[in-house]
Amino acid sequence: MIDRSRLAVLLDRERGSFRARNPRSAAAYEAARGHLFGGVPMTWMNKTAAGFPLYLATAKGARVTDVDGHEYVDLCLGDTGAMAGHSPAATVAAVGRRFGELGGATVMMPTEDAGWVGEELGRRFGLPYWSFSLTATDANRWAIRLARAITGRPKILVNSYCYHGSVDEVLIVVGADGEQVSREGNVGAPVDPTVTSRVVEFNDLAALERELAYGDVAAVLMEPALTNIGIVLPEAGYLEGVRRLTEKYGTLLINDETHTFSAGPGGCTGAWGLSPDIVTIGKAIGGGIPSGGYGLSAEVAAQVEGMSGLDLVDMGGVGGTLAGNALSVAAMRATLEHVLTDDAFARMTELATHFTKGVQDVIDRYSLPWSVTQLGARAEYRFASPAPRTGGESNAANDADLDDYLHVYLANRGVLLTPFHNMALMCPDTTTNDVDLHHEVFAAAVAELAG
Ligand code: PMP
């Protein structure tokens, strides 16, 4: 068991050395506080274990340096936005050529790259018709609109403690007594999400059937494995059950592959042979340039196209001025063609297996009540054993001080984990030595805690 007073002392010590090590980041943060809301360019950047964020200087491949001159092995990779590695050469070249030599980032004209990207995403995810966005959030919003248009139904069903972007419908959880409630902290909800949504626990097919039986659910929006509340893997038969029940009740199935893309070149959908009606994705596919998209089955595309009165070419609520722009599409093409290739995924997955094994060794050595779960190129440790099987269980295993201790301990010794998770992601440039450095520092952090 964790000695809480020892943890408090160690956390305090590590925060002190973080402050001492990073005077320039601290000064930049202080200077920005009068001009930036919350002192940061985007409020999530305040999610930091030590009181202020590190300021970026340079980033290449699996490495970043901060303004105080420290180098880090980056296992955060922009919370998946940089799963292709920072500034991968092929993407840099394609983006440079598009923006510089050829010219034109946002012209409201298609480029030939777009058809190539649609075909490649079709090969990987098995859905033939693609449209682009700049974020996964927007891909989800637009997919939800199409699902409501086709089915004429009002509600969206999600899994408890999912995350699909700042989409109003998804901020709903299963409450302590099994009731449906707005997620704590939900900022300015337009209506209570219980009006627009239904929610069930992941891996609970009985609850899913109960909620779908109301007949008012346009789409189930889900990750094939939860990744935003630790990794929660599907149990045997669960995803087949979801597909069967959604078909039975006339509900569309949307797989959000934004994070589960780590499972392979076609995400979980490709790796596990799933057949959703719609796939949404964002973050990594542009190699760092804002990109996203949604893919539709032939049936869904035909249904939408067959409906009269939908304004798909102007102000109907689907699409955006900068979506599918020439720069973003050039970045997606280069990243998919040359960086996040089938071979790269095989290497990244091998490294994540090495990561998982090393963490499990430490857990075993100290008989910790923790677990580590891998999803392709990603792995995550969680303070619960056995590994949680629902979002609710995983949420109950949160331990903010322990999270902060491990994050700041690792950062002080050159390793970055994703601030929102204990998640480690491999990119094509991550090396065995990088993973070994994590193991060494993680083992030392745990040894000090164990005393
Ligand atoms: N879907 C999933 C599964 C995500 O994890 C996230 C972000 N963490 C999003 C969608 C939203 O991505 P973005 O913030 O880039 O729109």
UniProtKB/TrEMBL annotation:
A GO term for molecular function: transaminase activity
Cofactors (names): pyridoxal 5'-phosphate
UniProt cross-references to InterPro entries, sorted A to Z: Aminotrans_3, PyrdxlP-dep_Trfase, PyrdxlP-dep_Trfase_major, PyrdxlP-dep_Trfase_small
Keyword annotations: Aminotransferase, Pyridoxal phosphate, Transferase
Pfam family, one: Aminotran_3
Similarity annotation: Belongs to the class-III pyridoxal-phosphate-dependent aminotransferase family.
NCBIfam families (UniProt xref): PRK07046.1
PANTHER family for the chain: GLUTAMATE-1-SEMIALDEHYDE 2,1-AMINOMUTASE (PTHR43713), GLUTAMATE-1-SEMIALDEHYDE 2,1-AMINOMUTASE 1, CHLOROPLASTIC-RELATED (PTHR43713:SF3)
Protein name: Aminotransferase
